[in-house]
Amino acid sequence: MVLLTRRIHFYEINDQSWFPSYFREKVQAGLTLLWTLRLPLIQSTSPAALVAATLQEALGNRISDYTYVDFCAGAGGPTPFIEQNLNRRLGFSKSADYEGKVDIQNANRSLRSRHVNGIQQRRLESSNVDFILTDIAPHLEAWGEAAKRSHNLHYIPTPVDASDAPSDLLELLPKSGKKRKVFRLFNLAFHHFDDPLATKIVQNSIETSDGFGIFELQARTFSSLLTITLMWPLLLLISPFYFWRSPGHLFFTYVVPVIPFVLVFDGYVSSLRTRSAEEVLVMINKGGGVKGWEFDSGSECHTFPIGEMTWFIGIK
């Protein structure tokens, strides 16, 4: 991966306090769609599903050892979809272990059915992992709606500072009977922090968690900038199919194109902000005390042929 420039911490429009909340919600809805969309021929899976697959491959047999805590969850973003996809994959693999070759739909159905063998159902349910939404500014209404759709998705209603999170964070949740390690997730979030704050966040993660993962859909590369440029015509093509019930969304996509402009502009800025794996390691080493930790990183194609998802994972 050839980086075009040093990291530049410019400002994203959607982060600014003066940017109207009405537009912010529309931009976030568009971004969530891009996380969860699978385009035929050029995407083998959605970016959210790709995160789930990467977690499963990187963590291997340890995937079920953790509770996954999304820091900086915003209004929810891709995390509910990552949770559904990862638990679907885990349910499928467990079902295959006990019943042989089955399809994913049957594995999911067996999780819900009351007529399957009781022992089998307990095994499948025990393979599920929990996801927790947190943010320094909780979005309780959006999180509550998301949590209603899955018994494996929860949220902490009080503010959580990613740079000063307690080691007993899960104690803020109702007792679930599951005693698992904490794995922190930063989904399209880590690039938002300037260097001093990002350093505090990774060092706090080392001190108070058992693992963390940083996932970005962009990088400081020419191919990333080109992919982001193509988002504008893509949004023009697909918006009527997904936002036809929102005249305001369509108006500010086609007539006064605030939504595609902000998504593309902020996408460029996000690319210039995104850190390489080596730069994250430098931050980690500043704090020392990384004995017993293992780090891995890589990139996966989320949109053929030029869209890349970069990831960095640390586990203790």
Question: Can you offer a commentary on this structure?
Answer:
- Strand 6 and strand 7 form a beta hairpin.
- The chain has twelve helices and seven strands.
- The protein has a seven-stranded mixed beta sheet with strand order 3-2-1-4-5-7-6.
- It has helices at residues 21-36, 47-59, 79-99, 104-112, 118-127, 140-148, 195-208, 222-229, 231-242, 247-255, 258-273, 277-287, and strands at 66-70, 131-133, 153-155, 181-187, 211-216, 294-303, 307-315.
- With 316 residues, the chain is of the alpha/beta class.
What percent of the residues sit in helical stretches (DSSP H or I)? Answer: 40-55%
Compute the separation of the termini in Å.
27 Å
Show unreliable segments: 94-124
Taking all residues together, what is the mean pLDDT? 87
Order of helices and strands: HHEHHHEHEEHEHHHHHEE
Distinct helical segment count: 12
Radius of gyration over C-alpha positions, nearest whole angstrom: 20 Å
Q: How do the strands of the widest beta sheet line up side by side?
A: 3-2-1-4-5-7-6
Report the major sheet. 7 strands, mixed
Shape: globular
Percentage beta strand: 5-15%
Q: What's this entry about, in short?
A:
The protein is an alpha/beta fold.
Topology diagram in text:
Layout: H1 21-36, H2 47-59, E1 66-70, H3 79-99, H4 104-112, H5 118-127, E2 131-133, H6 140-148, E3 153-155, E4 181-187, H7 195-208, E5 211-216, H8 222-229, H9 231-242, H10 247-255, H11 258-273, H12 277-287, E6 294-303, E7 307-315
Parallel strand pairs: 1-2, 1-4, 2-3, 4-5
Antiparallel strand pairs: 5-7, 6-7
Helix pairs in contact: 1-11, 2-3, 3-4, 3-5, 7-12, 8-11, 9-10, 9-11
